[in-house]
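Possible regression after last week's pipeline update?

I re-ran a chain I had predicted before the update to compare outputs. Posting the input and the new output here so someone can diff against the archived version. Not blocking, just want to make sure nothing changed silently.
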Amino acid sequence: MLTSFSTLLLFGCLTGVLTVLFGFGGGFVTVPVVYAYLTLAAPGGADAMHVAVATSAAVMVVNAATAALGQWRQDRLRRAYLWPLAGWIAVGAAVGSFAATLVGGTELRLLFALYLLVTIADTLLRKGFLRVADGQPPRPLGRGTATFGGTGIGLVAAGLGVGGSVMTVPLLRRRGLPMAEATAMANPLSVPVALAASLVYALAPAASAAQLPAHPGQLGYIDLTACGALLLGSLPTIALVRRIAGRVPDRVHSVAYVALLGAVLLVTVSV
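New output (post-update):
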């Protein structure tokens, strides 16, 4: 058990790095890690994927809010891109997280892997992500993009427990924003996703039914022990890494983002 806690602590540190540099908030790391932790601790346990997604959402509430506060103090957030999306993301997140409680764990895991694959293909095959045009100012978000894009981001992100980074970063990137700014704004935009998802998963009726083992470290679908270990590693790391955020070259930043998605896809399909 101590080994498992130490492993979660180390991955919590990694989550802190990814939160600041890529705006992930934890989802792409914590979902496969918590899923593996649960399946090793209780082989054949029910709803491990639901618990992993729920725990990821709870971790993201704290990580994303902490990182967003630091980035706001550094004046790296653009309000014009935040508010049009935030409200609609919250609406989509409430619907998506509730729908995820009705989907089987195996199906949810397959959807998570498929979503990663589509995202990687999109960033590689469509122009505008790996490199933005030099000398052109960022373009504003249209009303339709904010409404339908925001709802879609919340729906998918909350349902899969991955926050909004994987959708908001490509969206803002293709509007002409540097990677440092696009990833910075992914954190505040992940807060409504994570908060709505955490509330739904914590109060989900299915979580109190017979398919989940009862223990004092669980709130609905959220595993509080795993959540605490991950946060214990991530929060100090966020405080350290945000001091160097913005110094990574734009091209390196965008390529590293895509490479990271590929690594997480391999982990997801192998556990």
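Follow-up from reviewer: compared with the archived run. The mean pLDDT is 79. Marking as no regression found.
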